[in-house]
Amino acid sequence: MVENRPFLNFLTHLVLILGIATVVFPVYLAFIASTRGPTEFMSGLVPLTPGDHFLDNYGTLLGAGSTRAGTLPFLSMLGNSLIMAVLVAVGKIAISIISAFAIVYFRFPGRVIAFWLIFMTLMLPIEVRILPTYKVIADLGMLNSYSGLVIPVIASATATFLFRQFFLTIPEEMMEAARVDGAGPMKFFWDILLPLSRTNIAALFIIMFIFGWNQYLWPLLITTEPQYYTVVMGIKRLAAVLDGDTQWNLVMTGVILAALPPVLVIIFMQRLFVKGLVETEK
Amino acid sequence: MASINVENVGKIYTGGVRAVSGIELDIADGEFIVLVGPSGCGKSTLLRMIAGLESISEGEVKIGPRVVNNVEPADRDIAMVFQNYALYPHMTVKQNLEYGLKNRKTPREEIDTRVAEAARMLEIGQYLERKPKALSGGQRQRVAMGRAIVRKPAVFLFDEPLSNLDAKLRVSMRGEIKRLQRRLGTTSIYVTHDQLEAMTLADRLVVLNGGKIEQVGAPLEVYHAPASTFVASFIGSPAMNLVKAELHGDRLAIGPAMIDLKGFAPTSGAVTVGMRAEDLRLVEAGDNALPFRLEYAEELGSQRLVHGTVGDQSVTAAVSPETPLTPEMSFTIDPRRLHFFDKETGKRLAGGIPAEARLAPVEPVI
Fold it and tell me: In this protein, which residues make up the domain named ABC transporter (chain B) (predicted)?
């Protein structure tokens, strides 16, 4: 498809630029809004240039929180989200890689059933089982705790399935060579399987981190104490002011702050991801 | 260094599929044994049972004096070279070589000496810091062998190690494996489906078919006195001609032709007769000659293979490249070079000149 036609070049670039603009423009607007004062949205005109309240807005939100909406400092909510997202991502990967290892490399009764049970839960989103799960967590006294936030969402059928598929592509001779080389099952896992899975782990970490970060309904249900609020809930609280006008500048500041960590994770992990792709065997 | 005794070994997979049965094999210390047979004959299964990668359903495998049926592969004092090399892709060549030794808690200095020694022997010294993906097929093959050598095992097991290489490299690596085995004197078992590889490498060949041993013997023994029609057609290229024939007293009828056996008739009645392509000699039509109708010829450079029919049975003969090709040709054969097989069972009845006698030129009797 290497063709040198000026018109086609122009057209493809136009489509690309339009596409990017469609995606980026709302984000840009959010950023602009986060640099403006509280009254500048009342006129109905949306400004397109940065204002001079950047430090004000971010300082207020990170430091004291919005007094009018009665939220906590965003910093503590960001912290909660980070704890939750990291624990969820690490936990999901750790659990699913071990289950996939068991399913692929060990012969035990009920192996196939175990796999299909895991596979079937792929179809069930959290929302389907949210009430029974809530009941269980409540009975265990885990409301308003990090374990309550993390544990119910920590098992991942998707990740188990992906690791299983990946392990199946590793030639069986690799395991046999390791056996002849005197590596037991766990040594094989640590020395061979884990390094080979690096790329998959990086990719899954990105996906699972964002999954954990974006959890909304579950934290909303089980946290009633502000010290356990996550940032996604925080935005909701900023926006839903009972009396008076919503401070859109602060809401947008919150949105930008909440969007930043996942972006950083992607940028950072992307490098590892690409490196892994380049380095591993074919 | 160890001898290996395989006693009445069989393998039954779950579901009752029998892959191997009744294998009896005694392998002397330092011997190079090649297991050869078509795909699905159980040769790999047998090797993997000796390696410990496959459980042994029946019988006993001894390595040295020890019965190893329930011993982990790592504790059997064996090293294995796999068909796809099975190098660890994330480790450098050096780490690949070291891995087995490290797992055995070998002291550092010892590891370094052994790796250096193996690298020198296999000429892979300059690749030690590379990863396997940066190596060519032949180099990977060397590393896989290096990984076996550094362990100084009692037994080497090779599972079709050369089948992923191109033809030229295969020949040179074949020589190298043989040389290395001679030098180290390690007992080796080598699995292949390539009869040429089997012939050139083996001290003794084990021909397997349908999970059973058909014949065990030195390559020339097997070549000159195949125990069955299966071995006869499997070992040697081109494959031995096997034709239906009838013995009438001292005369052998192959289709329309009669051959005087000059007292070499082993039995009477219907038999299967085997003739090596190179044992057929071009003659003028007449008595004792097989009328041959040419179908096509293959040029091998050093010789020319002519394919055609005698009566209604196909026959291949090797002739010199100068031989003129005519639609009708005639061949004859020294009766001592005929192989007789039972028509029903395919078992060898008699015939063929013993391997020792083959080494000296045989005076033609016709």
Answer: 4-235
Check residue A282 and give its pLDDT. 40
Question: Closest to A181 (Cβ–Cβ): which among B84, B103, B133?
Answer: B103
Residue A230 main-chain phi, psi, to 5 deg: -100, 170
Q: Could you list the residue range(s) of the whole structural domain that residue A129 is in?
A: 74-279
Answer yes or no: is A201 within a domain.
yes
Is a pLDDT exceeding 50 seen at residue B39? Answer: yes
pLDDT in the model for residue A234: 84
Alpha helices in A34-73 (DSSP H): 54-63
Report the share of chain B in percent with pLDDT over 70.
95
Total domain count, chain A? 1
Closest CA–CA distance from residue B76 to any residue of chain A (Å): 9
Please answer whether residues A148 and B47 qualify as being in contact, where contact means their C-beta atoms are separated by less than 8 angstroms: no
What CATH number is given to the structural domain containing A150? 1.10.3720.10
More confident position, B255 or A170: A170
In a domain, A207, yes or no: yes
User: Domains along chain B?
Assistant: 4-224 (3.40.50.300), 240-359 (2.40.50.140)
Q: In what order do the strands lie in the sheet with B58-63?
A: B17-27, B4-13, B58-63, B66-67
Q: Is the ipTM beyond the 0.90 threshold?
A: no
B15: phi > 0 → left, psi -120 to 50 → alpha, else beta; which? left
Closest alpha carbon to A46 in A68, A31, A61: A31
Minimal Cα–Cα distance from A176 to chain B, Å? 7
Q: In what order do the strands lie in the sheet with B348-351?
A: B257-260, B251-254, B241-248, B269-275, B339-342, B348-351
If one counts every other C-beta atom within 10 angstroms of the C-beta of residue A20, the result is 10
Q: Is B13 on the interface with A (CB under 8 A)?
A: no
In a domain, A251, yes or no: yes
The mean of the pLDDT values for chain A is 85
Q: What is the pLDDT of residues A40-90, one digit of tens each?
A: 776 777 778 888 888 888 888 887 766 655 667 888 888 999 999 999 999
Cβ-Cβ contacts under 8 Å for A50 (sequence gap 6 or more): A31, A32, A35
In which element (H, E) is residue A132 found? helix A130-139
Q: What is the mean pLDDT of chain B?
A: 89
Compute the distance between CA of residue A250 and CA of residue A238 in angstroms, rounded to an integer. 8
- Overall average pLDDT of the B153-170 stretch: 92
Average pLDDT (B118-139) is: 91
List, for residues A199-236, the tens digit of each pLDDT value. Answer: 889 888 888 999 899 988 889 888 888 888 888 888 88
Q: Is residue A48 part of a domain?
A: no
Task: Name the residue with tokens 């397997």.
Answer: B208
Question: Is residue B308 within 8 Å of residue B293, measured between CB atoms?
Answer: yes
